What we know:
It is a single chain. The chain is an alpha+beta fold. It has a single domain (2-138), classed as YjbQ-like (Jelly Rolls, Sandwich). It contains three helices and eight strands; from the N terminus they run ββαββααββββ. The termini are close together. The structure holds zinc ion. This is Secondary thiamine-phosphate synthase enzyme.
Amino acid sequence: MKSFRKELWFETPNRMDLINITREVEQALLESGxxxxxxxxxxxxxxxxxxxxxxxxxxxxxxxxxxxxxxPHEPLSRYRHNxxxxxxxxxxxxxxxxxxxxxxxxxxxxxDLGPWEQVFYGEFDGKRRKRVLVKIIGx
Length: 139
Ligand code: ZN
C-alpha cells in the first residue's frame, strides 16, 4: 500500500468564503500515482471546513446566509468564546455544522464523485494563511 500527503494553503480575502478545491485534490491524486484507494481531505483549523456539495452560486449564498443566521459574527459579546480575547466564536460553530473532512473513493486514478459532487473549502475566519490536509492511501 502506498500513502501520499499534501497540504493545500489558503488565504481568503473575506471572513467567510467557500472555495471549490476539487481540481487541487485531483492534482494531489495525480501526484500520488494511486489508482485505487481512499482520499481524505480535512481542514487543519477549527474555524474552517471541508465539505462536498454542488458548485452553484445561489446555493453558496444560501449557505452563507443560513450560517450567518445560525451564528452571526456580531455582536461579538454573544459568544463566551470571545471572552478569551478572540473574535471568532461564530466561526467555530460554523465549522462544526459544515464538517471537518470528507473521504472520497478513488477509482481508476480519479475521485469517484457523484454527478454534481464537488469538494469545497469553507473558510469562516479568513484573511490569514490556513491549510487543508490531503491524505491518500491505496495502490
Ligand atoms: Zn477561537
